[in-house]
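Tutorial handout. Part one gives the primary structure; part two gives the three-dimensional structure as tokens.
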Amino acid sequence: MNRAPSSVWKNPIHFLAFGLGSGAAPKAPGTFGTLAAIPLFLLLQPLALHWYLLVLVVTFVVGIYLCGKTSEDMGVHDHGGIVWDEFVGYWVTMFAAPAGWLWIVIGFVLFRIFDIAKPWPISWADKKVHGGFGIMLDDLLAGLMALAVMQLLALYFI
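Part two.
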């Protein structure tokens, strides 16, 4: 069971790291965090690719701080409720994705599969890289793998 500290609702850094509170879900916080990333993706989707990429870089770098600081404050490396990394991982998956709800759902499913299954090198990063960078890195890798599958599907089915 996910136990979110009260600081999630009081500390803006923790609130962001917990995905605007979505990571406080009692079960499957990563899934709820990814779901919470979808409305924000809808705001990002119209951006030109170079601006979207800039947002990805900035949110990844900011995420290193948010996740690292929250993890440090809580005394728990990569607490399940820290889901900013899921936000960014999902947005990476959706880079240059075809428009439409079908693709939003496909991206969600693909990202969750890679994030949960953690095939190599995701599993390596999850075990060996620590701190805020480590928290962000495994979801970046999951997002990149999901992005590759998404683009292949789009290539062959559009």
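Part three, for discussion. The helical segments are 12-17, 29-44, 49-74, 84-93, 101-117, 122-128, 131-157. The chain has one domain: 6-157.
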